[in-house]
Design a protein that fits this description.
The chain contains 3 helices and 4 strands; from the N terminus they run ββββααα. The protein has 100 residues and is of the alpha+beta class. The chain has a 4-stranded antiparallel sheet with strand order 1-2-3-4. The chain is globular and about 50 Å long. 11% of the residues are buried.
């Protein structure tokens, strides 16, 4: 059976080569992190961070790491777990850049 045809209004549709780093680590809380960190030319220098255990993904730069409670909310972490993730992300995320 064929799906009904719908007219789609694409706002963007592009393909690019990206680089993805897959990292698994355990911190002092014994929480295991399985992450995919994708570098792309989009998102003003921020990176796409995917938690492969809970299926949550966020576009993050170091400026986001200073937002109180942000990582806890995004990835459903307690304060200690978020601190461990924050420590790792400070090492791999670059500073965002904005263009005119």
């Amino acid at each position: 059976m064929n799906a009904p045809r719908q007219e789609l209004d694409f706002l963007s549709d592009s393909t690019e080569s990206t680089s993805t780093r897959f990292v698994t680590f355990i911190g002092g809380s014994l929480k295991r992190f399985d992450l995919a960190v994708t570098t792309t030319s989009r998102f003003y220098g921020k990176k796409l961070v995917a938690d492969m255990q809970n299926g949550r993904t966020a576009i993050l730069g170091t400026d986001d790491l200073d937002e109180e409670g942000y990582l806890e909310h995004l990835f459903s972490l307690n304060e200690e777990e978020a601190g461990e993730l924050r420590t790792f992300l400070y090492q791999v995320l670059g500073d965002p850049y904005f263009t005119d």
